[in-house]
Design goal:
It catalyses: ADP-D-ribose + H2O = D-ribose 5-phosphate + AMP + 2 H(+). It is a single chain. The protein contains three helices and eleven strands. The mean pLDDT is about 95. By secondary structure, the chain is α+β, with helices and mostly antiparallel strands. A hairpin with a 3-residue loop joins strand 1 and strand 2. Helix 2 packs antiparallel against helix 3.
Amino acid sequence: MSHADVEVLQRETCFKGFYRLDRLHLRHRQFAGGMGPQLSRELFVRHDAVCVLPYDPQRDSVVLIEQFRVGAMDKSANPWLLELVAGLIDKDEEPEEVARREAIEEADLTLGALWPITTYYPSPGGSDERVYLYVGRCDSQGAGGVHGLPEEGEDIRVHVWPLEDALQAVKDGRINNAASIIALQWLALNRAEVRGLWS
């Protein structure tokens, strides 16, 4: 199936701020062949995001950031999450440029080579956001401290962990957000190849 199998009857903007919420009235072709009934769906319209896992192949360590996340406030005992360096593509930038800019802003890190992992939709049932996911080569020696842009309300603590400790934190549920889990598990599966090329 393709876009030709979706008929948008009406699209209205319900809210517009930094993000946007649209309501779509649509029909789509069903697997049996005919067009289905009219549906009403809300769509959270977001900028695409870039997430990068800084990895030091010499020390086999990763750089993670910790910051407050309002989305985790009502459903988590601790709304300060361990995450990847990340940012939105909200200007005329390529994803790789966003990865490098955000690494400097959020972790005071200069990234070397970027290894694309994947591009995915984190919540396609109600949001159009795509995530560009990378591993970025770095030197983790001396990394740490608190960073971020004060004008954006950022208060970001930087951690350097052995990769094995980060993987254990995924297993224990201490790292509990999709981009971090995907990137760390990908690195666990591809560590030998990455270290071979980057060491």
